[in-house]
Amino acid sequence: MRHGDKINNLGRTAAHRKSMLANMACSLIQHKRINTTLAKAKALKVFVEPLITKSKEDTTHNRRIVFSRLHNKYAVTELFKNISVKVANRPGGYTRIIKLGNRLGDNAEMALIELVDYNEAGYSPKGTAKKKSTRRSRGGKKAAAEQAAPEAKEGNSSEA
């Protein structure tokens, strides 16, 4: 029975799972967004959000705690120098998971997990409407071609 067993084991041993989540967290910290399966994205969210919370207070103790989970000093430096500054006044919810559909090979549910404060390109929530583009008639190309043709003729006559 699974009473009280809330961790998703992802079909891996404990050592493999910890290593995989540490690598994925380092990639997320360095690249600000990664594509993965939905189950891994949900597990990664639980893994990385407490680390981001720790990074808000830059102490040696917090750096050592985060390093013991990530095992990558470059990711720890990026987390404490850049990311912690952006999330300083956010009370949680540092990551966003966006479902992408199913993978072609094995039909696994795919997702994009990204840091919320680094969403310059792409994400627009369902509530906001995009600006409509205006359709132009095809006559515009024809008129432009007619204007260009007389200018070309005038240019030839001035050279002679």
Care to describe what's here?
The chain has a domain at 14-118: Ribosomal protein L17 (50s Ribosomal Protein L17, Chain: A, Alpha-Beta Complex). By secondary structure, the protein is an alpha+beta fold. The mean pLDDT is 86. Strands 1-3-2 form a 3-stranded antiparallel β-sheet. Helices cover 51% and strands 12% of the residues. The chain is built from 5 helices and 3 strands, in the order αβαααββα.
SSE layout and pairings?
Blueprint: H1 14-31, E1 33-37, H2 38-55, H3 60-70, H4 73-86, E2 95-102, E3 109-115, H5 139-159
Antiparallel strand pairs: 1-3, 2-3
GO molecular function: structural constituent of ribosome
Protein name: Large ribosomal subunit protein bL17
Keywords: Ribonucleoprotein, Ribosomal protein
User: What is the helix/strand order?
Assistant: HEHHHEEH
Strand order of the largest sheet: 1-3-2
User: What would CATH call the architecture of one domain?
Assistant: Alpha-Beta Complex
Q: Tell me the CATH topology of one domain.
A: 50s Ribosomal Protein L17, Chain: A
- The residue-averaged pLDDT reads 86
Count the DSSP helices: 5
- How far apart are the first and last residues' alpha carbons, in Å? 95 Å
Low-confidence stretches: none
Shape: elongated
Let me know the largest β-sheet: 3 strands, antiparallel
Strand content: 5-15%
Helix content: 40-55%
Radius of gyration: 26 Å
In CATH terms, the superfamily of one domain is Ribosomal protein L17
Overall CATH class of one domain = Alpha Beta
Q: Write down how many β-strands occur, each being a DSSP E stretch of 2 or more residues.
A: 3
Q: From the helix content, strand content and strand pairing, which structural class follows?
A: alpha+beta
Protein name: Large ribosomal subunit protein bL17
Family: Belongs to the bacterial ribosomal protein bL17 family.
Keywords: Ribonucleoprotein, Ribosomal protein
Subunit structure: Part of the 50S ribosomal subunit. Contacts protein L32.
